[in-house]
Amino acid sequence: MSSARYPGAKPSLIVRKLHPENQETPIHFITGDEIDHKMFYRRNHFSYPTLTYSNYWLPINGSVVSPRIFSVQDILKLPSRTITAVLECAGNKRSLFEPKVFGEQWENGGISQGRWKGVPLRTLLELTGIQAGATEVVVEGYDYGKRTDLDNIYTYARSLPLEKALHPDTIIAYAYNDQPIPFKHGYPLRLIVPQWYGMASVKWIKQVSIVDSPFKGPFQSIDYMYYPNKENDNNSFPVTTINVNSTIQRPLNMEVLDTGKHIIKGIAWTGKGFISKVEISTDFGKTWSYANIMNQDQERYRWFSWSYEWVVLEKGDYTIMVKATDSHNQSQPTSPFWNRKGYGYNAITKIKIRIE
Question: How far apart are CA 174 and CA 180, in angstroms?
Answer without folding.
Answer: 6
